[in-house]
Amino acid sequence: MARRVLTVPLVVYTLVWLAGSVAVFWVPDRVADVIWTSIGLISVAAIVVGVRRNRPARTWPWLLIATGVFLSIAGEAVYDLLTYAGEVDGPYPSVADVFYLGMYPPLIVGMLGLSRSMARTRVPLLPVDAMVILGGLGLLSWVFLISPHLFDPGLSLLQRVLIVAYPVGDLLVLAIVARLVIVHGFSPAVVLLCVGAVGLLVADTAYGTEQLHGHGQAGWPARVAWLLCYGGWAAAALHPSMAELTRPARVVSAEVCIGRQVSLLAACLLPQALLVFEAARGRVPHASAIGVAAGITALLFAIRLFGLLADHRRHTDRAEIVRAASARLASARDVPAVRAALQDAVERLAAGNTPHAVQVIINDGGHHDVFTPRDTPDVSIVASAPPADLGPPTGPATSVLVCPLRLDERGPADADLGMLILRSSGRQLDVLQASMQTLASAAAQALERLTLTAEITRRDSELYFRALVQNAADVILIVEPASWRVRYASPSAARLFGPVMTLGRPLLDLVAPECRDTARDQLASAKVDTPQPSDWVMAGDGARVQVEAVCQDLGEEPAVAGIVVTLRDVTEQRRLQRRLTYLAYHDSLTGLANRVAFRARLQEVTEQARGSGLLAGVLFVDLDDFKIVNDTLGHETGDRLLREVAKRLLAVLGPHDTPARLGGDEFAVLVPTAPDVSSIETAAQHLVAALDRPFTLDGRPLSGRASVGVSCTADAPNAVDLLRQADLALYAAKAEGKGRWCRYDASLGADAVQRMRLRSELERAAADGQLFLEFQPIVRLADAVTVGFEALVRWNHPTRGRLGPAEFIDIAEESDTILAIGTWVLREAVDTAATWQTNARTAPYVSVNVSVRQFHAEGFADAVQQTLAAAALPADRLMLEITESLLLADDEQVWHDLGELRRTGVRMAIDDFGTGYSALNYLRHMPLDVLKLDRVFTSTIATSRQQADFVAGIIKLAETMHLEVVAEGIEQPRERDLLRAAGCRYGQGYLYSKPLSAEDARRWQNP
């Protein structure tokens, strides 16, 4: 219960003090002295009554203050006795001064006793603040009270000592009271103590001045000040707030408030102000004293500043530790993490030279006994008590700080979640008290969060599993262990079984007849530890559903007491698995068997053939020039052609034969049983003939011509060799001219190896300088004047010598080597043509063959223009020869590049016209300049009238389309004459010249 501010003794004393104070000034001196002494004795008695009534933690400081007041009254009585008995007016010094001076020791010790209770809560800077203020007041006393009389030659040594002693004692009392103000603030008891201390200083100052000037009795200023001194201290003891002065006070920050700032600033500036004041009076008698005081003040102020910075740094460090620990607590996932964060944070806070011990207790639901610090009077307990087994502190750590982990600081002790205990010195505990309480609060919140999270997780888990069962797509059934009747079915059972799903029905009635034995066996073996799933077919409502069933006997579980059957609808999954299995062994484009299935079937057939003595054969099929179809007409058209080829294979082959697509345009046919080798060869012949017939796609004829390699088990010991031999035979068929079949014999192995070696050597030929160009003249038939040269590539093979294009161009076309060769040929031909005669009207052009793959390469048109620019060759002196297959390309990019090159001046020619696709309809669409007749026409016009007429028709058609015609392979004068008569203007061949080297070509056109 809160005490009343005003008490009866305080009111009675106040009235008595007021009455006595008034009477002192209105009665005769002798009566006034008696009243004066009575007021002092009453004040002493009032202090004793206040101590007994308010019961402070320490009584002896107040009793010492009462002793000091009593000695002051005794000195006053002795002084009056000497005055009246000795009839001496104002004896000074006298025996009374012994009692007066004897007042200060108990008074100072008592005041220090009051401040002792806050010794652990005060920061080291508070005495510095008091010393700064005390220094300023001491300087004032020196200048105005002590110095003017201290050096008076008319005074004795004892009088000079008293002049210094009284102000020093008063200032010490005032400084101690100032410390109380800094820590406790202006509480009623502190204010009254301040009134008494100021009254003491004023009374001694006024009384001493009067004595030095020879006055006997004290004047009214001194009397008023003494009355305030006695009354203030007695009233402070009677006021209830006096008990707070002997209890531990709050921790005081080193930062100063406005009042303290003003006080410190005034004390620091006081020496300078006095110096200015004395200088204004025209004298500086106290310059040395003022200088010393200024130096001491500056030193104290520097100490104060450095201490303030150190305190701020320590405060910042503690705040950072608390912040980091709070972050760890906020993210802690379990109780050990909370304990570790608290332990680490407190260890860091208490780190230093002071011995300490940290203990973190997390409440596990057990009971904590009450801890009573009977063996340790300096124990500091905050809001709760540690458990009894904590024991008394031992060693240097003489105090204990206990912070309960409680969400509400004002809540009951039963709400504690744990305790944070720190043993250390009292000073360190008081400094760390606020940080420890903050950590305890954060830890309590973390523990509460973990508790709530665990509870929410538990409830969510229950709801989660309940929702899973209620909404799971899988059907969960509980059946009776003996009868296998359904006792419980999850809601998803209605979606799987329909209305036939009723409780109490035997589960086997819902299973399709062909799966009941499997279901019966699985239910009977449901007690195994690791139940294995199996597939059932459910046919409850007529619809057949394939499910994956798992049975687990939980008869010993009280909440279940039955067999739990989980059914998962896998109808679509099993269908997809069957589809994936089919795709794993079949080609997705054609539907034929793929390479994996073919190899497996081949292995099986070869083993059977070896055991039965029958023959088995393999037909390795590869479409000729299929790459041209992809490059010119696109991959979609190529895929359609492959599907048509697969259909034709199935139509031609026997019912037991196995066709397969191995990849790209490669097919294989397995003939499992054949009476002899000729039967396998006949199958290959039929297959080549069937694919030789053109395919029609979108009204456009396309060639599906193929080459076939044949092998049989008579020549191969196993499946691997059988397939390898068929592959070698295929290479031989292509080498003989394509569109045919070839059976493997032992000599083909070496030819295939040689072809692979030749391809590898060709990749390095251009880089090693093995390629070179020859130039065959193109002449005007009318007068045999050379108008141009066709650049022809040759290979100077290191071992085989000079090779023509027919021996390696097909190999280059099979890989990207043709691109590197084509780029080299174009650059060399253009550079050579640039060295020919510079007369633009008579200089011959150079004609360069360009492959389909080269023309489809990205940036080909730009590369041609850059080559011409690098050699400074006019564009009209370059002719590019393309094959007929490029005419079938509905590729806008190709047509754009052709048009772009023609706009720059480059001329275009179609090479070997008439040997490939029938492309006359495309001539009017393509940007062409020249049509070159293949030698197959020119070599027969002299012997066949029909062929001559056909050639003449082509020339007329070209003339109608404004195309120049160049006849290739002219070897006889008769051929030249017939061509010239038909209207052909240009030609080339051995009749004029064989291909020439670059140097011979230069001399040829410059004889």
Describe this protein's structure.
- It contains 31 helices and 25 strands.
- A hairpin with a 2-residue loop joins strand 11 and strand 12.
- Helices cover 53% and strands 14% of the residues.
- It is α/β, with parallel strands linked by helices.
| Main β sheet profile | 8 strands, mixed, barrel
| Helix share bin | 40-55%
What is the C-alpha radius of gyration, as a whole number of Å? Answer: 61 Å
Give start-end ranges of low-pLDDT stretches.
Answer: 117-126, 212-216, 250-256, 365-397
Provide a count of the helices.
31
Structural class by sheet pairing and helices:
alpha/beta
The percent range for strand residues is: 5-15%
Termini separation comes to 136 Å
Which terms summarize this structure?
five-stranded antiparallel β-sheet; alpha/beta; 1007 residues
Present the secondary structure layout.
Layout: H1 8-24, H2 29-54, H3 60-85, H4 96-102, H5 104-116, H6 125-150, H7 157-184, H8 188-212, H9 220-238, H10 258-280, H11 287-331, H12 335-349, E1 357-362, E2 380-381, E3 399-404, E4 418-424, H13 426-471, E5 475-479, E6 486-489, H14 492-497, H15 516-524, E7 534-538, E8 545-553, E9 563-569, H16 571-585, H17 595-612, E10 615-623, H18 626-633, H19 635-652, E11 658-663, E12 666-674, H20 677-692, E13 695-697, E14 700-702, E15 706-712, H21 719-735, E16 741-743, H22 748-765, E17 771-780, E18 786-797, E19 801-803, H23 809-813, H24 817-833, E20 845-849, H25 852-856, H26 860-871, E21 878-882, H27 892-904, E22 907-913, E23 930-933, H28 935-938, H29 945-960, E24 964-967, H30 973-982, E25 986-987, H31 998-1005
Parallel strand pairs: 2-3, 15-16, 18-20, 20-21, 21-22, 22-23, 23-24, 24-25
Antiparallel strand pairs: 1-4, 3-4, 5-6, 5-9, 7-8, 8-9, 10-12, 10-15, 11-12, 13-14, 17-18, 17-25, 18-19
